[in-house]
Design a protein that fits this description.
The complex is a heterodimer of chains A (211) and B (219). Chain A is mainly alpha-helical. Chain A is built from 12 helices and 4 strands. Chain A has 2 domains: 52 residues, no CATH class; 144 residues, Nitrile hydratase alpha /Thiocyanate hydrolase gamma (Nitrile Hydratase, Chain A, Alpha-Beta Complex). In chain A, the strands form 2 sheets. In chain A, strands 1-4 form a two-stranded parallel sheet. In chain A, strands 2-3 form a two-stranded parallel ribbon. Chain B has 219 residues and is an alpha+beta fold. In chain B, helix 2 packs across helix 7. Chain B starts with 27 loop residues before the first helix and ends with a strand. In chain B, 40% of the residues are buried. The chains are: A mainly alpha (211), B alpha+beta (219). At the A-B interface, helix 1, helix 2, helix 3, helix 8 and helix 9 of A face helix 1, helix 3, helix 4, helix 6 and strand 2 of B. Strand 3 of chain A pairs parallel with strand 4 of chain B, so a sheet runs across the interface.
Amino acid sequence: MAGKHDDHDHHDHDHGSELSDTQLRVRALETILTEKGYVDPKALDAIVEAYETKVGPHNGARVIAKAWIDPEFKKALLADATKAIAGLGHFSRVGDHLVAVENTPKTHNMIVCTLCSCYPWEMLGLPPVWYKAAPYRSRAVKDPRGVLADFGVTLPKDTEIRVWDSTAETRFLVVPMRPEGTQGWSEEQLAEIVTRDSMIGTGLPQAKRPA
Amino acid sequence: MNGVHDMGGMDGFGKVEVEQNEPPFHEKWEGRVLAMNRAMGATGIWNIDMSRHARELLAPPVYLAATYYQKWFLGLRNMLVERGYIDADEIKAGHALRPGKPLKRGPFGMKDVERILNRAKFGRPTNTQPKFKIGDKVRCKNINPATHTRLPRYVRGHVGVVELNHGTHVYPDSASIDGTENPQWLYTVVFTSRELWGEDADPTIKISIDAFEPYLDPA
């Protein structure tokens, strides 16, 4: 028993040390990479800034709002999302294979990456912690209704749920249903209610007119 | 590899916890880890499949206990040490103790930032013909390589239907080992929940993966 106990402590210690003082260790690694001439820290600043300011779900929201207003664009988006979005001209490249999947009264789509954290960064920004964490990655493919309940979303029992596991470099974007009560809204107003979660499939847009 | 990263269908991880108005980074170091990963990847000394595999190789207790960016940090550090771009004594010292090695595409500087903000291409046109067409029934092979694969355990041995053909793409199972792109046809294959989870499963649910042709047999 004593030996077992010691082993246990030993393991805890090892794993603890891998995960302690991360901030200091990250700083040390950056110092080493800089001193070796591998990276310019100013370029690292620029990367961080881009991910803090340029990318985000506002990009995807503009695409969805346009799809709600413009049936031709929506058709093009569902046929070839990469091409349709490139045609808008003001987004960074979304890679070869972005697939837009449409929610209908019959089918609700949900995106997950069970193996890691694949996510359409160019459309939605960096994935939230929950998307990259074990509870979502493990359950989304087996119990999507239970996962939706964690988000406060309940769908009719006969709505088909389609879960897309992003196991390759293909990326998926959910086109949510335009909510009732948004007739006559401008594209900008509509973009305001397209949430990040609604484009992952774990939320539904609500017709709350932005102030 | 059959690692803990392959989480689809596992139980016991609890509720999904959503943080309202989550910032891009919770700590400053998280942004530095992301930037260092992107920058070193852009120097061409490894590919995205190798960096995914490096995180999968973390010991299971570490993988499960680490935050996302801790995994990214450990994966990056391990790849740099294994490939001899930095040494263990330098990590201990917190400084470089010897000059850097040449990098395939040279050091990462301001001129390279724009390039990494655009997503890389993974499609690789080939002259091969796809083995399967839309609507074909396919069975995922029961393969268990100890190396990197993108065929999750929960679909192995199961029958699905080919729904989309995405063309030929870099094959991660090869690229993660030695960088060989070995392009393969990539399909979206859709399964019923009962096929994957048994007859008690909710029949209104369908699940798809994106599967490379070598993962599939006709069914």
